Amino acid sequence: MAQQPELLLLDDYSIGLDAGYRRLFLDDMKEYLKDGKRTVFLTSHVIQDMVGFVDEVIFLERGGKLFQTSLQQFEDSFCCYRLKGHYDHNTVQCIEAINPVIKNIEAHADFIDLFSFRSLDTVADALKDIDMSLGNIEKIPMTLEDAFIGYTGRY
Question: Has this prediction a pTM greater than 0.85?
Answer without folding.
Answer: no
